[in-house]
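sorry for the late reply, my laptop died twice this morning and i had to redo everyting from scratch. anyway the thing you sent over, i finally got around to it. pasting the sequence first so we're on the same page, its 426 residues, then the predicted structure underneath. double check i copied it right bc i was rushing
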Amino acid sequence: MPLATIRDDLQTTFRALRHRNFRLYWSGQLVSLIGTWMQSVAQGWLMHRLTASAFMLGFLGFAQFLPVMLLTLWAGVVVDSIDKRRLLLITQAAFVVQAAVLATVVSTGIVRPWMVLVLAFVFGAINAFDLPARQSFVVELAGKEDLPNAIALNSAAFNTARVLGPALAGVLLATVGEAGCFWLNAASYVAVLVSLWRILLPARAEAVFVWRKAVDTMLEGVRYVRSVGPLRNLLLLLGITAGLGFQYMILLPVYAREILDAGPRGYGLLVSAFGLGSLLSAVSMTRRLNRWALRRNLLIGLTVAGLGMGTFAWSRTFPLSLAMGFLAGFGLILYVATTNTLIQLTTEDRFRGRVMSLYTLMFVGTAPIGALISGSIAQRFSAPIATSFSALILFAGALWMVHRLRVVAAREAAQLPVAAEPEKVG
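ok and here's the structure:
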C-alpha cells in the first residue's frame, strides 16, 4: 500500500485529533480511564473476597449506579446551565478524593463491605454529573463536522483503557493487592485535570441557573425527546438492553474464582478480552458511515453481542471464554457507539446536555435494576443462567431492530417524505 494512502487513512481515522482542545482532552482521558478500569476491577474482586456472594456483587452494582438513575436528569439541567469545563474540573477532583479514601481504608485493613458500598455510591453520584458533561463537551472540542469521529475516538480511548487497566489490575491484585489499584487510580486523575486546565475555549455567556426553574427545564428536555421519534426509540431500546443485557461485568469475579478457576490475573484478562473487542469495534467506527450503515450497525452489534455473551455463559475453558468475551465486547460497543453517534447528530445544541443526561440515564442509570436482577438470578440459580438471560435480552433487541429497519426501508422505497427526518432510525 502506498505511503500516501496510509497517511490519508490515518488522517481520516484520527481526524478529530487535529483539534488541539480535543487532542488534550482525549490524551488526558486515556490515562485517567486506565486508572478507572483498574479500580473497577479491583472493587469487584474486593467485594467478592470479602463476601463470596454473587448477590453482593449485584448489590455493589446497584449502589454504584443508583445515583445515576436518581440524579442524571438534574445533572443534564446543570450541564446545560454552567461551563462544562469548570464542571469537569470539579468532578475529576472529586474522583481523586473518592479513590484516595477507598485506597486508605483498604491499605489500613479497616475495610468492610458497607464501606465499599458507600464509596461506590459516592462514585456514582459524581458520575451522574460527569458523564453527561463529558458526552456533551465533545462537540465544543471537535465541532459537529468531526463529532462522529470524536465520539468513536473517545470510545477507542475508553476501550484501550478497558484492555490495559484490567490487565494491570490483575497483576497488581496478585502482587500488592487491591489498594495498589485504588492509589494508582487516584493518581491517574492528575492527567485529565492538567488537560482540562490547558484547554482554551472562547468565552461564552452562561445560562442563568435558577433552581426553581430547574424542573421546567428538565421537563422541557424530556418533552423534546418525546417529540423526536428517533431519539425516543433509540433511548428506549438502549435503556432496556443496557439495563438488562449489559450486566455481565458484575459477575466476572464469579467466573474467574469459581467457574474457570483463573485467579486474579485471569480475572483481569477476562475483563481485558471484553475491552479488546470493544476497542477494535470503536476503531472500526472511526470511518465515515452513512445513515443506513449506522442503522445496520445497531442490528449487527446487538446480534454479535448476544452470540458472544450466550456462548461465554456456558464456556468452561479459559481460551474460549476469552474469545467469546472479545466477541461480546465488539458487539456491545458497536451498538452503543452507534447509538451515541445517532443521538448526537439528531439533537439540537440547546438540548444537548439534557439529551445526553437521558442517554446516561438509559445507558448507566438503568444498571441498578439490572445489577440486582442479575445478582439475584446468579445467587438463586447460577451465573451462567444470569448471563444467558442478558444474552436473550440482546437478541430481543436485535429482533426489534429487524422490524424497524424493514419499516424504514419500506418508507424510503415508497418515497415517503422521510427526507425531512433523515435521522429516522426507529
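The mean pLDDT is 84.
thats about all i looked at so far, will dig more tmrw
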